[in-house]
Amino acid sequence: MTARVEVAGVRPPTLHLYAQPSGATDVGRHRPLVEALPRDVDRLTRINHALVVHEHIAPAYGVVLTDEDYGTAHHRSVERVLDFVAARDGRPFDQPRAATSRVAGNCWHFVMLLVATLRVQGTPARARCGFAGYFSEGRFEDHWVCEYWHPDERRWVLVDAQVDAMQRSMFEIDFDHLDVPRDRFLVAGEAWARCRAGTADPGAFGLSITGRFGEWYVAANLMRDAAALQRLEMLPDDTWGAMPGPGDTVGGELAALLDGLGTLTLAPDTRLTELEQLWADERLRVPKTQPGGS
To answer: How far apart are CA 89 and CA 103, in angstroms?
Structure first.
């Protein structure tokens, strides 16, 4: 085990940063409705489950998505996603909705809705990119979760915002998805460290639905997680800079650069300034003109 988290009980100096909206998590015109939502993580995840249906699991909910429906999953703005929600059903967001009334998204959208709402409520929260070891036997699947600061327990808590009662049964999840153990979901920096140390097989990390796995995938998610820690929440399929693609070998200077990046992402609250400084490297930083999507 090489997992590293901030020491429980110590109030991180970054909490104010993660309580502020980012470009992607700004709810914009929907703020009054979001402010009216309950201040309970469990209830908030349940509300979001009634707003979004996962694009790859939709049939399990009796939903057949059209090509137009799939387009929602490519929007990088919570405000825009909520526009689609309101267009389908103009009632307050906490009102029950049939599965056929939900908008298409993926794990990223469930996480971003929760992060956005918590930030509106003043609760520090951030999106974490990595790999879940509870969807496929023997594999760690590409996934995003929410990490929020629990004020009473004074620690960061991982929440799988996508998992509902049906998915708990479907994937035989045997732990509290509102407090995901850090050996069941590996943030990308942890996955990278294990692969580099030879304690994990890079071939186990990727996405089954695409059939793509490998060290390159871990490296790519490491860059996505590092961006999210700086409140630059990129879509799961965004690529930029020196991010490797399918089958690319990660070695030499790039591997060394990612080693340093991974170490910093495992202690983001005490080493955020170092992370920001390293992010200035043109091989890492997100370009001002971002990939497609709105």
So the answer is: 10
The pTM of this model reads: 0.94
pLDDT tens column, 148-157 = 999 999 999 9
Residue 152 burial by CB count (10 A; 0-12/13-18/19+): exposed, middle or buried? exposed
Q: Are strands 185-187 and 125-136 parallel, antiparallel or unpaired?
A: antiparallel
Instruction: List the structure tokens of 105.
Output: 């998204």
Beta strand spans in the chain (E): 52-54, 103-105, 125-136, 139-150, 155-159, 185-187, 205-207, 212-213
pLDDT at 6 over 80: no
Q: Beta-carbon neighbour count of residue 48 at 10 Å? A: 25
Do 224 and 285 meet the contact criterion of CB atoms below 8 Å apart? no
Residue 108, SS3 per DSSP: helix
CA gap 191, 64 in Å, rounded = 34
DSSP secondary structure letters along 22-67? -TTT--GGGHHHHHTS-S-HHHHHHHHHTTEEETTTGGGGT----H
Nearest Cα to 93, choosing from 157, 29, 146? Answer: 29
Higher-confidence residue of 69 and 130: namely: 130
| Rounded Cα distance, 192 and 207, in Å | 16
pLDDT surpassing 50 at residue 1: no
